[in-house]
Amino acid sequence: MLSHEGIWSAIDALAERHRLTPSGLARRAGLDATAFNKSKRRSADGRERWPSTESVAKILEATGATIDQFMDVLKGERAPVATPASAALPAIPLIGFAQAGAGGFFDDSGFPAGQGWDMVDFPTASGIKQGVYALEVQGDSMMPLYRDGDVLIVEPGAPVRRGDRVVVKTTEGEVMAKILMRQSARSIELHSLNPEHPNRSFEPAQVEWIARILWASQ
């Protein structure tokens, strides 16, 4: 018998087998990034919300799984799901911007470290460089360029130059995505992606690291 908890657990298990978060699975299927969030599984008054048959069909197509394989997962069977397309894709660490500034997720050079990272497929099977990671946009502070749920692929240690889109971590623990406009021995000037947010300027001693944004999933 199908149950609300069983259906959602099967979707979570399918995402895990493809080394994706539920939001990553939704994006791969062409759905809203928040479609499978735990907060969307019940209404405000506590009523159960079920995923649509269209949503299930899209995640099966996106992962290469059949309905029979999905039902096996639903019944708790652990038969492997065939993933010829995604199996070739390497996985990289993923974390949300809100968590990134909490501390303990990066070393002093800006490379991912510590526990608490999710994993997400890198968008290409070749050309991946050591230390590359993903940051998930949360909120509207980077609109209109990046929206809530978009994933930024970041390469720490890569050279940066004027006009690059970068991720910056300050010595105060703040993590932000900006456009690098000027970097000198006296100051680092950053322009905001969202015109409603102010540009920022720091002394070099106030910045822990700067990393270049390679790519964004939108």
Q: How are the elements arranged and paired?
A:
Layout: H1 4-17, H2 22-28, H3 53-63, H4 67-74, E1 91-96, H5 97-100, E2 118-121, E3 133-136, E4 151-155, E5 165-170, E6 175-183, E7 188-192, E8 200-202, E9 207-217
Helix pairs in contact: 1-4
The CATH superfamily of the largest domain is: Umud Fragment, subunit A
Low-confidence stretches: 78-88
Largest sheet: 9 strands, mixed
Distance between the termini: 37 Å
Count of individual helical segments: 5
User: Looking across the biggest beta sheet, what order are the strands in?
Assistant: 2-1-3-4-9-5-6-7-8
Beta-strand proportion? 15-25%
Q: What is the fold-level CATH name, i.e. the topology of the largest domain?
A: Umud Fragment, subunit A
Label the overall shape. Answer: elongated
Q: How many distinct beta strands?
A: 9
Specify the CATH class of the largest domain: Mainly Beta
Mean pLDDT: 83
CATH architecture grouping of the largest domain? Ribbon
Q: Helical percent range? A: 10-25%
Question: What is Rg?
Answer: 19 Å
How does the helix and strand content classify structurally?
alpha+beta
Element pattern in H and E:
HHHHEHEEEEEEEE
The figure for the number of domains is 2
What does this structure look like?
The protein has 218 residues and is α+β, with helices and mostly antiparallel strands. The protein folds into two domains: 4-86, Orthogonal Bundle (434 Repressor (Amino-terminal Domain)), CATH 1.10.260; 89-217, Umud Fragment, subunit A (Ribbon), CATH 2.10.109.10. Helix content is 20%, strand content 24%. The protein is built from five helices and nine strands. It has helices spanning 4-17, 22-28, 53-63, 67-74, 97-100, and strands spanning 91-96, 118-121, 133-136, 151-155, 165-170, 175-183, 188-192, 200-202, 207-217. It has a nine-stranded mixed beta sheet. Strand 7 (188-192) and strand 8 form a beta hairpin. Helix 1 crosses helix 4. The longest helix is centred in the first third of the chain and has 14 residues, at 4-17.
